[in-house]
């Protein structure tokens, strides 16, 4: 077995440093010898004018970074996907069996009006490991005014969250992977190229796409646990490991969310929903709570911002995501992409914008952006500093500004 | 005539007469009369408690204190300790007193818990190269910040009274009276230098200590000694003491002979009277009454300082804690079974309550279930001996740990368990001027500062190894702990996985 490419030179050799320096790193590595060095890859693209992007573009972006995955999970989310059903919640499911589907539909019939349901076309790939789930999508409206609805005492969105949580928690073999309006998640266990083919991603068009390829380490690789992880219209692609998971889970569970997906990334999604939708925090303040500045840096802020920074750290200390991460967060109304890395920036995140300024990209690696937009202008966000892009508004933040623009 | 049976001695100093230079320092050092000078020699009398002050004083290292062999026939059930206490009770007919923390072999769960560390998937952090934060807050948190109709954050409506500390450490409540002026001065100065909190204990605050009030937490106990509105307004937080881990259900007892001028002035009681705190607060017979006292204290401090409640860890501690939080407490202190005391009946010191490891996890879980955990600061105390105990206690659910005995040891205490006798040879738990003068405030302060500084450095090292760069991300992070003790049921109750169990 030829493994020379892994061994630069022995250090005892007097000319070691010279040999090392002259060695080319651009070598063609045979598949069987590819080093397992990756982690997760994330990629996203958004058109500011709201024009539609084909799924094949995001497929190209994420598969370019194939070094970052190991075939144990990948996924895509598209926004602006169902203009004909933009007012209905689109609940997309992975079912293990027909029984699980029947049980889920029974429960749904009590909670929501079914506007339309359809099978999501899937194309199992020979390289993928069976069994394959049934993928189904329902366009629904909450049964407002019914006894079930009134007894929960919740508003419409919390009612939908409760429904999703109870299905995922109580019905074995049934998982609601997305539940937002005008969006859907396509994910599963496999390489990004396989998942893209499994769902035939190129058949869909949206004004924003996010995607993820996975190298799971501390959590099992399974269909429902792949990213993006989504609740309502939130979806999160997460590359990282949360060392504070036990603390973060506490906060979301106290607020009624149930962690069922066996992955630390799940809490990130719920935190965004809790803080931005329910607590109505500005996105910048939420990002600050998740990746706060050091106290020594907070001291340097102007008075009001310092007060706010301290207050956010005190109030939302359970929302602080410790450990390395970079995340892409999506949300509709208006369709928004948020890109955020941890406060030490231990995981990569770069942004890009096309020369005409209309297409904005975010990815783990620059190559993912250049592969679809060779003329893109590339920049890196600062550690713990969110980049925010909105359809109709443009680049709201580049991720290089002061922390609280417009929050107070 | 009283039929008194002599109890065999436990310790005996041995004097090396060859080395001894007959300076008699040891005789002066021994406040228990265990050494005497006879026939031009230092001789051993009865009553050695192994405080080892003589060993430290001896200029020629001529003294060794030995533990004597047990003078009882072996018996598996009636241990020598049990027989000693039975003889003692038959002699005196009284309740046996003791001090320091429980001296029974209850399970030390801290030693059965292992910490996690970061490998490969997340990078560990070297605290000497990168910041690792240990700043900690004490007080009520609002749960969420207030956002106005325009989507702007309203800071004035969001802020609550909060105390900021540089370490998640609070020196526990030790009253002036139970310890000497010098000892308390050293504790308070150390707290000020470290920018952490120190508890005043229930004995009020001596005039000299007011300049350090910003680092002090006032205790309002059932005796209300020295509690004035001026005092409450000066300090940075107020703690209502319901109970203490060493003697749950009991009040503090300070014998009249300790109530000398200094103590009498500070506690505002007549010279020489016993300072007996009632067992309950006689204005708190229910949770509603506690709520009223919390309100009264908040009102009298103009809502500027956090008001907390301290309870001993007892079996239903989770439910009691949630009641206290609902009654308005801004912070909550739980004191575990092994917590220290200057004087307590031995029977209650050794047999009542719950270890802090279980209590802190139970309270954290209960407050979480009730959705209250993000609103209150949880302090835990009761034999937090080392930085390792502190770290495990924080990971089990505490925001702040309270430390007393270890700070005393830093000052010189050797845990001989004689505090209740008021004859502390190290000048700590005594009011006798000839003994208190032995404690140098400057040196004691520096030693406490050194010790806690070292703890904080160790905390940073561990946090860094875990891949965590701020201590708040460790609070209640039980995922990062594993149990390796003999009883898996304890792991279940602690909500900690067993060693060998992975993440998913």
Supply the key terms.
heterodimer, A: 408 residues, alpha+beta, Glutamine Phosphoribosylpyrophosphate, subunit 1, domain 1, 12 helices, 19 strands, 28% helix, 25% strand, B: 504 residues, alpha/beta, Alpha-Beta Plaits, TIM Barrel, 2 domains, 21 strands, 30% helix
What would you say this structure looks like, in words?
- The complex is a heterodimer of chains A (408) and B (504).
- Chain A is of the alpha+beta class and 408 residues long.
- Chain A has one domain: Aminohydrolase, N-terminal nucleophile (Ntn) domain (Glutamine Phosphoribosylpyrophosphate, subunit 1, domain 1), CATH 3.60.20.
- Helices cover 28% and strands 25% of the residues of chain A.
- Chain A has 12 helices and 19 strands.
- A 7-stranded antiparallel beta sheet of chain A has the order 8-3-10-1-16-15-17. In chain A, strands 11-12-13-14-18-19 form a 6-stranded antiparallel beta sheet, covered by helices on one side.
- In chain A, helix 7 packs across helix 8.
- Chain A starts with 15 loop residues before the first helix and ends in a 10-residue tail after the last strand.
- With 504 residues, chain B is α/β, with parallel strands linked by helices.
- Chain B has 2 domains: 84 residues, Alpha-Beta Plaits; 319 residues, Aldolase class I (TIM Barrel, Alpha-Beta Barrel).
- Helices cover 30% and strands 16% of the residues of chain B.
- Chain B has 16 helices and 21 strands.
- Chain B has an 8-stranded parallel beta barrel with strand order 9-10-11-12-15-16-18-19, surrounded by 6 helices.
- In chain B, helix 12 links the parallel strand 18 and strand 19.
- In chain B, helix 5 packs across helix 15 and helix 12 crosses helix 15.
- Chain B is globular.
- Chain B starts with 10 loop residues before the first strand and ends in a 6-residue tail after the last strand.
- The model of chain B has no long low-confidence stretch (mean pLDDT 92).
- At the A-B interface, helix 7 and helix 11 of A face loops of B.
């Amino acid at each position: 077995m030829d493994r020379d490419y892994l061994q630069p030179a022995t250090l005892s050799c007097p000319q070691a440093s010279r040999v090392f320096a002259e060695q080319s790193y651009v070598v063609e590595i045979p598949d069987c010898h590819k080093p397992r060095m990756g982690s997760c890859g994330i990629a996203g693209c958004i058109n500011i004018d709201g024009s539609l992007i084909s799924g094949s573009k995001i497929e190209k972006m994420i598969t370019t970074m194939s070094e970052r995955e190991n075939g144990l999970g990948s996924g895509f989310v598209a926004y602006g996907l169902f203009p004909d059903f933009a007012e209905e919640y689109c609940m997309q499911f992975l079912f293990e069996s027909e029984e699980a589907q029947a049980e889920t539909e029974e429960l749904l019939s009590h909670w929501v009006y079914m506007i339309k349901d359809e099978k999501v076309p899937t194309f199992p790939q020979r390289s993928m490991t069976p069994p394959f789930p049934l993928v189904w999508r329902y366009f629904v409206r909450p049964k407002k005014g019914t006894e079930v609805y009134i007894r929960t005492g919740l508003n419409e969105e919390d009612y939908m969250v409760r429904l999703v949580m109870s299905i995922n928690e109580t019905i074995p073999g049934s998982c609601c992977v997305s539940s937002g309006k005008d969006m859907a998640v396509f994910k599963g266990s496999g390489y990004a190229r396989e998942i893209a083919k499994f769902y035939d991603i190129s058949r869909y068009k949206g004004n924003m796409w996010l995607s993820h390829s996975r190298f799971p380490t501390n959590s099992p690789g399974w269909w429902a646990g792949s990213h993006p992880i989504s609740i309502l219209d939130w979806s999160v692609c997460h590359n990282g490991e949360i060392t504070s998971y036990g603390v973060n889970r506490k906060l979301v569970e106290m607020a009624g969310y149930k962690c069922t997906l066996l992955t630390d990334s799940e809490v990130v999604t719920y935190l965004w929903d809790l803080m931005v939708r329910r607590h109505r925090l500005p996105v910048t303040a939420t990002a600050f709570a998740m990746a706060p500045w050091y106290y020594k840096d907070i001291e340097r802020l102007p008075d009001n911002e310092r007060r706010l920074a301290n207050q956010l750290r005190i109030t939302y200390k359970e929302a602080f995501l410790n450990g390395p991460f970079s995340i892409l967060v999506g949300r509709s109304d208006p369709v928004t992409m948020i890109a955020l890395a941890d406060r030490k920036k231990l995981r990569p995140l770069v942004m890009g914008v096309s020369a005409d300024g209309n297409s904005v990209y975010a990815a783990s690696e620059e190559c993912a952006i250049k592969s679809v937009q060779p003329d893109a202008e590339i920049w890196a966000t600062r550690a713990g500093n969110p980049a925010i892009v909105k359809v109709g508004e443009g680049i709201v933040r580049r991720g290089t500004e002061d922390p609280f623009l417009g929050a107070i | 005539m009283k039929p008194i049976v002599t109890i065999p001695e436990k310790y005996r100093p041995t004097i090396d007469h060859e080395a001894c230079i007959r300076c008699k320092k040891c005789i002066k050092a021994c406040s228990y009369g265990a050494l005497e000078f006879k026939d031009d020699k230092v001789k051993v009398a009865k009553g050695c408690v192994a405080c080892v002050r003589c060993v430290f004083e001896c200029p020629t290292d001529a003294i060794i204190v030995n533990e004597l062999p047990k003078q009882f026939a072996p018996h598996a059930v009636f241990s020598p300790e049990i027989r000693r206490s039975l003889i003692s009770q038959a002699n005196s007919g009284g309740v046996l007193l003791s001090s320091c923390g429980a001296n029974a072999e209850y399970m030390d769960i801290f030693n059965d818990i292992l910490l996690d560390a970061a490998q490969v998937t997340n990078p560990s952090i070297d605290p000497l190269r990168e910041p690792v934060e240990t700043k900690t807050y004490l007080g009520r948190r609002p749960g969420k910040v207030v956002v106005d109709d325009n989507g702007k954050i309203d800071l004035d409506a969001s802020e609550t009274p909060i105390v900021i500390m540089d370490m998640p450490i609070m020196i526990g409540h030790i009253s002036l009276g139970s310890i000497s002026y010098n000892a308390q001065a050293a504790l308070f100065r150390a707290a000020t230098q470290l920018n952490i909190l120190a508890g005043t204990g229930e004995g009020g605050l001596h005039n000299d200590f007011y300049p350090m009030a910003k680092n002090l937490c006032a205790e309002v106990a059932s005796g209300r000694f020295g509690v004035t509105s001026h005092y409450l307004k000066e300090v940075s937080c107020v703690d209502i003491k319901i109970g203490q881990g060493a003697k749950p259900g009991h009040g503090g007892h300070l014998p009249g002979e300790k109530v000398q001028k200094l103590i009498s002035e500070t506690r505002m009681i007549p010279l020489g009277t016993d300072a007996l705190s009632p067992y309950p607060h006689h204005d708190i017979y229910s949770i509603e009454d506690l709520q009223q006292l919390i309100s009264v204290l908040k009102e009298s401090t103009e809502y500027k300082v956090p008001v907390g409640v301290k309870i001993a860890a007892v079996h239903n501690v989770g439910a009691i804690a949630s009641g206290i939080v609902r009654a308005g407490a801004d912070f909550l202190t739980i004191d575990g079974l092994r917590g220290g005391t200057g004087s307590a009946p031995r029977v209650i010191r050794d047999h009542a309550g719950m270890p802090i490891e279980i209590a802190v996890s139970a309270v954290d879980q209960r407050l979480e279930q009730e959705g209250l955990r993000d609103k209150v600061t949880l302090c835990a105390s009761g034999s937090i001996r080392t930085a390792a105990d502190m770290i495990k206690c924080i990971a089990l659910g505490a925001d702040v740990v309270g430390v007393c005995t270890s700070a005393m040891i830093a000052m010189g205490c050797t845990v001989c368990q004689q505090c209740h006798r008021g004859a502390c040879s190290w000048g700590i738990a005594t009011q006798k001027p000839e003994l208190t003068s032995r404690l140098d405030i400057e040196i004691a302060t520096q030693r406490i500062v050194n010790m806690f500084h070292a703890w904080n450095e160790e905390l940073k090292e561990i946090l860094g190894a875990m891949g965590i760069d701020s201590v708040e991300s460790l609070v209640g992070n039980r995922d990062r702990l594993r149990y390796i003790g003999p009883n898996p049921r304890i792991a279940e109750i602690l909500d900690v996985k067993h060693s060998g169990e992975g993440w998913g």
